Amino acid sequence: MHDAAALADALTEAEAKSRLKELAAVLAQANTAYHRDDAPDLTDAEYDALKRENAAIEARFPALKRSDSPSDQVGAPPSDGFAKVTHSQRMLSLSNAFDADDVRDFVAGIRRYLGLSTDTPLAFTAEPKIDGLSLSLRYEDGQLVTAATRGDGAVGENVTANARTITDIPTSLDGAPDILEVRGEVYMSHADFEALNTRQADAGAKTFANPRNAAAGSLRQLDSEITRSRPLKFFAYAWGEVSEPLADTQTGALDRLESIGFQINETTKTCKTAQEMLDHYASIEEARAALGYDIDGVVYKVDDLAFQRRLGMRSTTPRWAIAHKFPAELAWTTLEAIDIQVGRTGAISPVARLTPVTVGGVVVSNATLHNEDYIAGRDANGAPIRDGKDIRVGDFVQVYRAGDVIPKVADVDLSKRPDDAVPYAFPETCPECQSAAIREEGDAVRRCTGGLICPAQAVEKLKHFVSRAAFDIEGLGAKQVEAFYLDGWIREPADIFTLRDRYSQGMHQLKNREGWGEKSAENLFDAIDDKRRIPLARLIFGLGIRHVGEVAAADLARHYTSWTALAETVDASAEAAQAHLRAEELILAERKQAADEGRRANLQAQRDMAWANTPEEAKTAWEDLIGIDGIGATVAVSLVTTLKQRRERDSIERLIAHLDIQAPEARASESPVAGQTIVFTGSLEKMTRAEAKARAESLGAKVSGSVSAKTDIVVAGPGAGSKEKKARELGVRLLDEDQWLDLIGDG
Ligand code: IVH
Questions:
Q1: CA-derived radius of gyration, the chain
Q2: Closest C-alpha residue for ligand 1 atom 16
Q3: Half-sphere exposure of 322 toward its Cβ, with a 13 Å CA cutoff?
Q4: 151 CA distance to ligand 1 middle (Å)
Q5: Measured in angstroms, how far is the CA atom of residue 128 from the centroid of ligand 1?
Q6: How far away, in angstroms, is 225 Cα from ligand 1 center?
Q7: Are 471 and 501 in contact (CB under 8 A)?
Q8: Under DSSP, is residue 146 helix (H, G, I), strand (E, B) or coil?
């Protein structure tokens, strides 16, 4: 095993910082694997060694201690996790029904099993299936003695100390059987979940994906004081060992549990027929949005306990009960308002504010409405969607969620439309800066034309700038940036890098802000200083230029290796980009076929003229740009137009003055063409152009579309023209296809 202190001593501050980050991630993952998934991914010894290493580094660099430091996590090492409890009666799970037929089959099957004729009464309870985690509470002589999680059904974890902190769980009972195991669900309400997540986020602690995870994470704390601080609730719905029967029926047993102090779900209903069960299911589904906590279906149970005993169980599920699940990712709720969000590129997006509802296990209170056409009930070509139904504030709408994508409003129930609902009028000015919001031809989206004067665009740009894939400044997240913007401390990225100076000159009162002491301000400034040295790709991405994503930014960085080289090429290609836009207008006009012959001819002439008038230098620069694998005309035009805007450009230049921009590391490669710039021209016979490019790039070469003094190799096939000529003029190494293949070892 390694010596933790010696390891820590060997580290520089930067290495220590990144190691602490790594350790926090590895140990958090190990905790999750162990505590939540019951699937440890480290041995006890490995876990202990990593924790010691973390502590040693923190001892040497106390200032680097993270807010999510593993030393502060109460999640214990595996060796002292929860004690195990063997359930005196197994904790069962339920089989599922997915539609009305499954439910009718369930009822018919039970009648058959019990040999009941169709006119013999057979009642069922129908109660919501609470989406939390199940807990078994054992009372002896009226005192709570153990609380255990379900675990694998046979053996669970002893969480008694934590259960005692939950208000809904009585610690002593009056008038209960001597031995009584009460079973039910621990859950968290939507309101408590939101509040908890807000508190967690404010404290820089982890937030929970949904109320179920929050409930599980809160119950399974080794420090019960943490559980006490979490607002958990409990519904009782079943029982295990009992020294005497609670009642003759499920309904009676629930009443009895309620009378001795437990919370029983009030939407439970006793039903006499399959139809009544299905009707109750429908009414619970409707009520779902307003319940205030998550449910994921309805559980039907045979009411007569003597019948339950006769029916018994299969290996892990009772024959006398079934869970009728809600369809996974759809839910209906009320559209309370339509808000407009302005993105960092000015895109104006309508957001649905909804009465919170659970969709596939996640509470949804916002969903996208895409754009104005979508709200109006038509697609980009004017064809109807949703049968042309528009969406109005006050409507009862269907919310749809797939995986982790942003939920969307999928449908609307016109029968529930309020009489006073009016069609939504999409704004034509930016709600943030009142600039005109314009929709360009061929664009589905309306955009604010305010640029940097629009506060919403400025804030979104800043959020993007500090985001993980961009500058990733520790302690400066979306929330802080927004607050600092409102305070006027940070108006543009460059301001981030003058914060320390302005602070020491007393120009802003960071100290007096809640949560910002002297120490945390210092930490923030250090974190900012850390990012003055920034890889070119992160800088390019961080600028938040429309269409320039992480991949395009990396491609550009690899090709140009410096900001100056990139900016020069972009600037030089401006006129070619302009000509390209003319050509695009023409294509658009042709596609729409709306333009008459005269207009088309005019556009054609404009395009030809634009190209003819474009200086050679601009064409070369443009071709260099769009010749980069992965960079198309859309990205190139966007780069050109952004860098051409004076305000934007000045803001970028002010930023760059504070930075030490790192060229991308050359790809480690043994290949003779690594780092070289290659141009393919003429026709290739052994492979397609795309294949040749990909192969060259995989060997670490840059592939360009135009020949310049910077070109290392031109591969010329038959039919090569001006590029081959230029290569000869410039004395660039010229190869035919076979020579190229020999060079790279593919011959
Ligand atoms: S009865 C033998 N009733 O659903 C019956 N379970 O999928 C045992 N659940 O492990 C369960 N609400 O955690 C029952 N009203 C309810 C329930 C409920 C939620 C959970 C419980 C169980 C799981 C089975």
A1: 33
A2: 129
A3: 25
A4: 14
A5: 9
A6: 27
A7: no
A8: strand
pLDDT of residue 504: 82
Pairing verdict, β 437-439 and 446-448: antiparallel
Q: Which amino acid is at 408?
A: K
Residue 504: HSE in the Cβ half-sphere, 13 Å Cα cutoff: 5
In the set 17, 129, 461, 463, the catalytic residue is 129
Cα–Cα distance, 184 to 138 (Å, whole number): 12
Q: Could you give all domains of the chain from N- to C-terminal order, each with its CATH number?
A: 4-72 (1.10.287.610), 84-325 (3.30.470.30), 330-416 (2.40.50.140), 466-496+498-531 (1.10.150), 536-662 (no CATH), 677-743 (3.40.50.10190)
> What number is the average pLDDT over the span 441-462?
90
SS3 call for 684: coil
> 19 in ligand 1 pocket by Cβ < 6 Å?
no
Helix (DSSP H) and strand (DSSP E) numbers for the chain:
28, 24
| pTM exceeds 0.85 | no
Indicate which residue's Cα is closest to atom 9 of ligand 1: 129
129 part of the active site: yes
**What pLDDT, in 10s, does the model give residues 639-683?**
999 999 999 999 999 999 999 999 987 655 567 888 889 999 988
CB of 185 closer than 6 angstroms to any ligand 1 atom = yes
Instruction: State which of 89, 96, 130, 258 you would mutate to test the pocket of ligand 1, scoring each by most atoms of that ligand within 8 A of its C-beta.
Output: 130
**157-172 mean pLDDT:** 95
Check if 554 has its Cβ closer than 6 Å to any atom of ligand 1.
no
Q: How many A from CA of 294 to the centre of ligand 1?
A: 13
Does the CB atom of residue 134 touch ligand 1 within 6 A? yes
Question: Residues of 165-180 as b/e, b for ≥16 C-beta within 10 angstroms?
Answer: bbebbbbebeebbebb
114 lines ligand 1 (CB under 6 A): no
CB distance 131 to ligand 1 below 6 Å:
no
- Record the tokens describing residue 546, joined without a space: 């429309």
Using the mean position of ligand 1's atoms as its centre, give its distance from the Cα of residue 299 in Å. 7
Check residue 373 and give its pLDDT: 92
pLDDT over 60 (residue 71): yes
Q: Is 293 in the pocket of ligand 1 (CB under 6 A)?
A: no
Span from the CA of 274 to the centroid of ligand 1 (angstroms) = 20
Mean pLDDT of all residues in 351-379? 89
- With vertex at residue 153, the alpha carbon angle to CA 150 and CA 158, rounded to the nearest 5 degrees, is 40
Bridge partners for 324 per DSSP: 97, 298
> Are the C-beta atoms of 445 and 431 separated by less than 8 Å?
no
Give the DSSP per-residue string, 541-607.
Answer: HHTT-TT--HHHHHHHHHHH-SHHHHHHHHHHTHHHHHHHHHHHHHHHHHHHT-S-HHHHHHHHHHH
Contact by Cβ (8 Å): 278, 285: no
The pLDDT tens digits for 598-644 are 777 777 787 788 888 899 999 999 999 988 877 888 899 999 999 99
Two tokens, residue 565: 């080289």
According to the model, what pLDDT value does residue 74 have? 47
Predicted pLDDT at 288? 86
- Closest listed residue to residue 374, CA positions, set 396, 359, 389, 364: 389
* Pairwise CA distance, residues 286 & 275, whole Å: 17
Q: Indicate if ligand 1 lies below 6 Å from the C-beta of 284.
A: no
CA separation (Å) from 102 to 116, 278, 279, 647? 19, 11, 15, 64
